[in-house]
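Shape matters. As here.
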Amino acid sequence: MIVYRKSEEECVTSDLVREVAALAGKMTGGARHDAATELLMETGRLEAGITDALFPDADGVNELTMAARRASIMAGHVFVSSWEGRAKDVAERASDLLMALEGISVMPLPWKIKTRIPEGFVHYGLFPEVYIKAAKDFYTAERPEEAVCIGLRSIGTSLSAVVAATLEDRGCRVRSFTFRPKGHPFRRKARLTQQLEGALKRLGKPFLIVDEGPGLSGTSFASAAKKIRSLGFKDEDIFFFPSWNPDASAFLSSEAREIWVRHEKFVSSFEELWVQSGRLAKEASVGPGLVDISAGMWRSMFYKGESDYPATHPRHERRKYLSEGSVLLKFAGHGRYGRKKLARASALADAGFGLPVSGLYNGFLKTDFVAARPLSGFEVNQVLLDEMAGYLAFIRRSFPASRGMEFDEFVQMALRNITLGLGQDWAQKAERFGEMKGVYAGGTPVEVDGRMLPVEWLLTKKGYKKADTLDHHSDQFFPSSQDISWDLASAIIEFDMNPMEQHYFLSKYSAASRDAVSRERLRLYMVAYLAFRLGYASFAAYELAATPEGPRFKNLAWRYAARLKREILWIAN
């Protein structure tokens, strides 16, 4: 099934160098810790983009990549000093970074680079401070005089810089490089140039492999360890620095399952450093005693029993904490990503569609938490349809996208999921879907809501409000930026609207937006939405089969499959 998509940005390299230098300049005069986080993130993005451009096939090193690596580690020093409250060191390290960036700016840079959106920093509440603690624990346990620190691009670029900086602060001599394991997501391999292999063979141990994962397969960590072992080092010379320590028996790769258990791991906890310490509550100016309602735990507040719970994938939810005084802290992203979501949340609140928002603190959006009840799919009424139509008209007006998804990627997702979810016969019936490029091209790219699920519509004392409005157009899943028809189709399907309700909903939307939605355009997006949701629900049902979420997603997959067949027949005829 295809449920993930690439999330990349293209930029002029010299422009990004100047942007990073501007961030470093702010740190020389003193700035909040979240500014140090943004500097770390953007410097790592610069390095990863440069290295990917210069070594697209096999990882290697040259003067420019080593200068970029050193710049990332300098940003790591700024970050570590900021976290530990050493203001003088922050200014000095930021000044050093500015000089390093000036040197990089006159080197032969690739004109443009592609950088991947760091999903952990943007969507999933990954905080680099946990790698400071992990590196300290490693140093206490091993007392190394030297170490080789390997970051796995892209996000491991920044995370490894934090580990390297922490160890250097303790007098450890660190040599550092980055790898990007390549290939199928479940069968990645680390490929190195002979020059880099030779350099690594001459270095001393230990080797520290740093990344956000592991993911479903575990192959990024495993492939890097396998490559280092092939250079003549032993398992006990290689340490893992992940963001969490899962049960390796769940990895999809048998090789990764075997390799994972052979290496010692150093991992720390966000809850310990930010929540239990009281730091998050203090910096967000909320009361103590934050209650974690992430990973589906919010459901216990709204439903009588677990049998009523809607399906949710725990690892795909944003971090959420509820404080005394009815304030919700929800992770929105570090740096410019969080600021963009703050602006969107504020616009929606001002328009009456979202909950009041009062700021962004270390990546967490601070909003009011009001008494409300999530809807079910059977609560369709005129007031709700009016509200949804007005909301989507506002989204279309207020959040245009500079570009949308390519039609080929859109079609590939739908037809692949139809083939795997319904069978080859149904894929043949859906062949006309791939001939509707003209219909697709006639749409207007919008930063859509992406999820018009009933559970995300709240009934409050002041009417209906939409939750989870900020970033489904920009996460690693479909839909990306699409015509608003994606959201219209989603609402019709998820609320199981009858023909009369559909007609009223679409007419109200068209009147509010002056966008006449043709039947053909709507049907195109209904097939695409159902194909994606069938893929997502099937994938989640498999991944979470051993948990209560597995049967919930399996039931959803059956429902989407049945409706998808109806829509395919409409297109075929």
In short: The CA atoms of residues 284 and 361 lie 6 Å apart. The chain has a mean pLDDT of 95.
